[in-house]
Amino acid sequence: MSELHKFIFEGLPVRGMLVRLTDAWQDILARRAANSETGAYPAPVRQLLGEMAAAGVLMQGNIKFNGALVLQIFGDGPVKLGVVEVQPDLSLRATCTQVGEVADDATLSQMVNVHNEGRCAITLDPQDRLPGQQPYQGVVPLFGDRGEKLENISEVLEHYMLQSEQLDTVLVLAADDKVAAGLLIQRLPIEGEGNLAGKADSLMRESVLGQSEDFSRISILTKSLKREELLGLDAETILHRLYWEEPLARFEPLMGEIGPRFACRCNRERVGQMIRSLGTEEVEGIIAEQGQVEVGCDFCGAQYRFDPVDAAGLFTGLPTGLPADVPGGSVH
Ligand SMILES: [Zn+2]
Question: What sign for the dihedral angle of Cα 210, 212, 213, 219?
Fold first, then answer.
């Protein structure tokens, strides 16, 4: 079962989270594999999307925000788009759009950052967005401070957290065909830290330095976690192995109904709106050619079919799917 574990280091300004997506991740992969148009993801794309899915859950779990967290990669290579959307209740969905060949040993930059123009966007979309209100979005490049291409999505997101939240973060991610997992450690802001340089308060300085040493030590422990360990060991074992000497306090794990799980938010009405946005002419053209409009959901694989009557109904504002002999439902 997929699970999210939150914990703090008692008395230290450090908190952490560990996520393991098993059934939720396998569900996402199985739906993609069942899609006859795309087929299954190649291994490197699977790893990228799995790491994004784990990171998305960690980031959503880390904020108090009533809305969707959407993590996107806009690639300039064969992988054009990677999307992970995590709701406040930790339900999630994910998909990747691949247009070219991806070699079995492709690196992150070979997939999404060939010309160093790939981007990663983090969007917070409020649940009850007011008309005209824009979702908050932060965008970071896929290169480091010296323009060097980053080869781990975890480094890209560590940069983002430092930039947007001013928080030191250590992120370890891994994914294969069974598990997508991640471990996040974050240093909490300390009151008065910003004034440290200006004030010659030696006591304060000492205590802040001490707490910063705690974070460094916990960071080193966290970074020592190997990919295989993150994928192969259960949460108890990982946390014990890494932090057995630390004052770890754990919260009740989030799993099952309240844990990370796959759920798609597509429905016929939204697909209808999308078709309507194409315009009458375009839709009539598709119907003339194919006899109906068929739209597949990239996230879950659901197929939505609009026959000529359904499609015409979209433009007359009538409910779709009504039989033609229902009064007011016929289209001439
Ligand atoms: Zn769907």
Answer: positive
